[in-house]
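Data deposition worksheet. Section B asks for the primary sequence of the deposited chain exactly as it was used as input, without tags or linkers unless they were present during the calculation. Section C holds the resulting structure in token form. Section D is free text for depositor observations; keep each observation to a single sentence. Incomplete worksheets are returned to the depositor.
Section A, Depositor: J.P.
Section B:
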Amino acid sequence: MAETPKLGSIVHVEIQSNDKPATSRFFREVFGWKMQEFPEMDYTMWTAAGGPGGGITAPQSGMGPGTLNHILSSAIEADVRKIEAAGGAILLPKTEIPQYGWFAVFREPGGAVMALYQNLPRTQAAEKKPAKKATKASAKKATKRKARR
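Section C:
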């Protein structure tokens, strides 16, 4: 079973490339990464044998080719305030990724550029835990309670 990422963990590695098809082909051929195209977003998701997955896209405005690590956040707005208070700069404010969540890009005081990522909230149906299966002991207790009434 896959481990649930903890807040503050790197959960997505985005490769920003000037030639997305060549980059996809390179990582597929050299490392065996699996690719899934999302043409409506002009984005390719990749998965490797281990570690976080990621994506391949064109560089963002004002940035050259490189990688952008996404750190898991439960509240981007609160983390943005912490980043700014600690001397970081927000390069791209909270931005929606339709059907997935949100991200924001920041620069830490030493100059490295990284991103925050926040999942969409889980639906109430997904949050409901399945009912516990009855055991012989719980069935006996229920029978005794009914008999007392």
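Section D:
Residues 20 and 57 are 6 Å apart (CA to CA).
The first strand starts at residue 10 and ends at 16.
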